[in-house]
Queue: 4 jobs
Job 1
Amino acid sequence: MNAPERFEMFTLPEGVRKISIVKDPKMANCLQFNIQREDHTIANILRYQLLKHPLVLFAAYRTPHPLEYFVELKVQTTAKTTPIEVMRESIQSLMVEYGNIRSAFDSEIYRLDGPSNEDTRRAARTGTGYGGFGSMDTQTADFGSAGDMGGRGGRADDVDIDF
């Protein structure tokens, strides 16, 4: 079969940098970030965050080929800043945002599990070892019925988030 080995999707080859930067000769104040061993997930999150920045004029990504495991993210900014600086700010902002989500998740796990022992308390503080979803009672009313899991199920606590 001609398909590459599956581990190649995740393993960075020796001597290859995770991110390489290429200056775009046709556009002013524009750089292309080639991010190795990533896909649409991280590229779309970064693109979205970059487009929220007021000094970004253009941000888009593409995957050159389905069997090549990297994305090309192109960023153009105004003359007041550089694409590298905007990329740093966007990554920092995402780290804070996802850190807050993780903290909220860990707090909720702690609330559901209760302060039954020291391991659970340590897990809530560190975000590790909380036992995963297997330790939660998924039969309680907190989770609703299986038909409600797809969103827009008519429950009062359904949240519709538009991006």
Job 2
Amino acid sequence: ILAMETKGADALNVSLRAGELTTLPGITSQATSLGAVRVAERAYEIAKEGEASGRVVSAVLSDAEAAMGCWRFADDERMLVELACGVNLALCYGGRLEKALGRPVHKDETVVIVVCGGSNVNTEMLANWRLEHGHLNDEGVTNGVVPSGKTAPNGA
């Protein structure tokens, strides 16, 4: 399990690094819809046990990377998602999944990315994110082929 958070809404990651359940002073990330200043005690315990056994990895990306995940997913799949989801989707681009895992992903492995939420996003927001963080756009594109084009059934 790869537990993704954006910087500034990273209560789980901060707690795991501190070795104790920690409360953030506030949410500073733009990804506020799912943000919590403190994770539930049980969630922290499960993540801590999972991290110790190697079954859970906690990773943090920037708001810019989450925004890139949103617009790239919109380009690739024609679906709008908000930043809290875009941080998961950013893993599909620029080698971020391998970096977060600390190892290559093998062809026989199955990767499932939870895609949720679109109530806190619109096309104007996507356009603004693309203008602000467009420098991230070319990461992960090889010869004009996007990840969804490689895996879509029948090339659809």
Job 3
Amino acid sequence: MAEQPKLSSLHTRLFKAKAAKKLSFEDIGKKIGRDEVYVASIFYGQAKPSKEELQKISLVLGLPESHLTEELGEHFYPDRGGLMSLPPTDPVLYRFYEMIQVFGYPLKAVIHEKFGDGIMSAIDFSAKVEKVENPKGDRVKIILDGKFLPYNKW
């Protein structure tokens, strides 16, 4: 069995409320004005929701706003990463790990050729997942959109 991420009791309640209401991350995102990947990031404790987002999530999921703001309010700052061990045991997550193992250096080389010496931001960043229908089997299309950050010289 795949290792489960380390979630707080409140984050677990978010998932339970989502399941009880039969909502997708896309459904919730549309109701709160955010992308589905960002919403999933909130559920996994990897994003810092605003007060307005907590109010909207409270309404959408039927959870008391006070419970959300008590744990995820202005004082909350995500402890990003650390949800799993490496290499991951979940098959989907392992494929991401495998993709970086196989294509990480080629992608890095192409980024350097096109942009120079620097990195792609994971802060000024967005991600999208699209389903592409294909007669040979549906395809997963993942778009990672990060600002290029050149290294400084001093």
Job 4
Amino acid sequence: MAAVREGLSRGKTLVELFYDVVSPYSWLGFEVLCRYRSIWNIELRLRPAFLGGIMKETGNQPPAMVPQRASYMRKDMPRMAKYYHVPLQTPKDFFETVIKKGSLPAMRFVSAVDIAQPQFLEPVSRELWMRIWCRDEDILQPASILAAAEKAGVPLEQAKKLLEMSATPEVKNRLKTTTDEALKYGAFGMPSVVAHVNGEPQLFFGSDRLELLADTLGEKWLGPVPASAKL
């Protein structure tokens, strides 16, 4: 609630993006909202959460677990990558990388960044997406996480401290609390965008609902790559 009041006090509409780097569609939504952050009258708040927890609590299943949808996704993601101007590529072993391994260590690290070094939250999240969804690289091993943090601009010693911090109850509780908040808003997958309009939270699911978000905010939709913003 404090975050809502803070956003409103600045005359901007608070928009929260709940995301997990294991979700490719979260990456698309993340990049588009970051582009519109300086165009729309919004305060964008990035909310790293755990998709595995949301799926478990809601009884949802990854789209790729349905054979027909998995086949569709293999064709759809390249189209989406081109349309959104995001270098998204499907990992070679999708099931092993996304479904079996998941993202828990990575999202705990992102949560630690959010707590202790929030200025790095955006670039660290982006670099983890780049690893898993562009270069088909690991995001779970400590060395992989440190490499992502370093490439995102985090000094190595700070990154090591954040990695140690990611195993603490404080960070684990933060990730769980944020995930629970998303569930309370009605989230059942990611990305989940919550816009606080006239004091009421409104949930939008998926990267393909941002045009509807713009209409709800009373803002103009200028496509996924507005002229005044670049990836």
